[in-house]
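idk why but the lab printer keeps eating my pages so im just putting this in chat instead. protein + 3-hydroxybutanoyl-coenzyme A:
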Amino acid sequence: MSIAHGIRAVGVLGAGQMGTGIALVSALRAKIPVLLHDRSAEQVKKGLSLVDKLLAKDVSKGRLTNEQANEAKDRISVIGPETGIKGFRDVDMVIEAVSENLSLKQSIFSSFAAELRPETILATNTSSISITKIAASAIPNGVNPASDEGKKSASRVVGLHFFNPVPVMKLVELISALQTSEETLERARAFAIASGKEVTVSKDVPGFVSNALLIPFINEGTATREDIDTTLKLGMNHPMGPLQLANSIRGTRDSKYRPSILLERMVDAQWYGRKNGKGFYEYKD
Ligand code: 3HC
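predcted complex ->
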C-alpha cells in the first residue's frame, strides 16, 4: 500500500457524482482504503454502481485486469447511517463532497471537529464557498478561534477542488484558507498527486482560479448560445462550450461575478439546466 503521502485511509462524505469519482480515484490510483458515507442509501447505491460501471469499462478496454478492478472496488467500504461520520475516526483525511450550501458545510465541519481526531485533515470539494468560512466552523464548541487550540483545529482544513467527471479530469485545485497550515497543504497536495492528478494552488478568492476564469465565458451573452459555444469549441479548442458546461455547474455568489440578468431569470423560472432538463439547452435524459 502506498502511504508516501501520509494518508493511509480516506473518508469521503457525499456519494454524488463528485464524491463517487473521488472515492474511485482514491481507491484505484492512490490505492488506499476509502470509507464512503452519504445520508441517502439510494445515493450510495447509485454511486457504487457507477464505480462498477467505470471499472468494468476500464477492464473491457484492457486498461485494468479483473484483479486490479476487484482490488480497487474492495478498497471502498460504506459507512451506514447508524454510524454516520463517527465512522471516519480512523482515517487520516476526510473529503466533504456534499451540495454547495454554506450552513450545511459549516455544520458538517463543526461535527468533524467534535467527532474526529485532531490531526485528521479536513478537506472540502467546494467550488464556490470560502474555505476560510468553512475552516472557521472546524473548531470544537467553546474554543476561541484565535487561541492556539482554535488555530490548530482550523489549520487542518483545506480546499481540494476536483473537476467533473473526476476520473477523467486531470486537475485538482488546492485552496489554502487563511488558517490552513503548510503541513496540511503539502499532505493534501501529495494525496492529490498520488490520486493521479496535477495540482494547482489558488488563494481563497471567489471562484478560486478555475471558476473565476470560467464565469466570464458564461456571463457575457454576446451572441446566440450555439455561437458562443461554437466559438469556444472551434476557436479555442474547449472540449465543451461554456453554456453547455454552465448547465451542469453552480456558480459563485460573489458580487464581482454577479450573474447576468439572463442567468438570474433562468433561475427565477426554475430552469436549472441538466438538473431538471431545461437551461440554455433542453435535456431529455
Ligand atoms: N464519469 C466518468 N467518466 C466519464 C464520464 C463520467 N461522468 N463522462 C465521460 N466519461 C469518460 C468516458 O467514459 C470516456 O472514457 P474512455 O476514453 O475511457 O472511453 C471519456 O470520458 C470520453 O467520453 P466520450 O467519448 O463519451 O465523450 P466526450 O469526448 O464528449 O468526453 C468529457 C466527455 C471528457 C466529459 C468532455 O465532454 C469534456 O471534457 N467536457 C468538459 C468537462 C469540463 O470542463 N469539466 C469541468 C467542469 S467545471 C468543474 O467541474 C468545476 C466545478 O467546480 C464547477
